[in-house]
Please model this.
Amino acid sequence: MLYKRRFQNQTLTERAYAYIRDGILGGRLQCGDPVSPRRLAEALGMSFIPVAEALVRLETEGLIERVPRAGSRVRIPTASEIRGNYVVREALETHSARLFAELAKQRDRQRLLKAAAALDARYGELARHSSRKGQAEVERAHLQFHMLIARATKCRELVAAIERSRVLLFNWLFTMADGYTPLPSRWHSDLAQVLVSGSASEAAEAMRAHVRYRQEEVIRQFQRLRRQALREGRLTRGPQRRTLLRLAAGK
Model:
C-alpha cells in the first residue's frame, strides 16, 4: 500500500510539474506572475502535496521563486543570473560545436542543415505574423536545433548539461517575444554550414558568436520586466519592496 501511494504521488507530481512548466514556457504564466499551489491543485483535481513538490522542483530549475510574504512567483532572472547563464551556455555549446565538427556523421550533418533552414523560415514567418503561440512553437524548434548538435557528439553528460542550461534561456527568450528585433534571415543556416564544413576551431568560434548575440538586449528586457513587476508589487511587499524600488530606480 505504501509503495502504491508513493508511486501515485510521484505520478501526480509529474503531472503538476508538466502543467506548470508548460504554462511558463507557453506564455500562460509569465515572469512575475503569482503561482498559487492551492488553485493549481483545484484546477488539476489533486491534493496540495504533489503541486507543492512540483513547485520545489521548478524552483531548483530556476523557473519558480518563493518570495517572503508574497508566495511563489514565476522567476524574473537578474542581470547577474542571465550573464552567468550565458557563460555556462557558451562553455557547453562551443565545446558541443567543436565535437560536432570532429565527430558528426554525414546523416547528422545533413539533418542539421535541413533543421537550420526550416528554423530560419519559421523565424521569418514569426517576424511577419507574431503571436505568443507561434513564438513558443518556434522556440521549441530552436531548442531541438541545438540539441541536434549536442546529440551528434554522443556524449550523454554534455547533452544533459546543455538541455538543462537551455531550459532557462528558452523561457527568457520567449518572454521577450514582443520586444526583440528579428534575426538575420540565414542566422541558423550560416551557423550550421560552418559546423558541417568548417574545422573544429571554426565551429567553436561560430557558436561562440551565436551564443553571445543579443545578450545585452536580453538583459535589458529582463531589467525592464523586473522594474515593472516591482512597481506593480508582484515580486515582494512591505519594506523590502520599497528598498528594491529605490535600487531599481537607481536611488
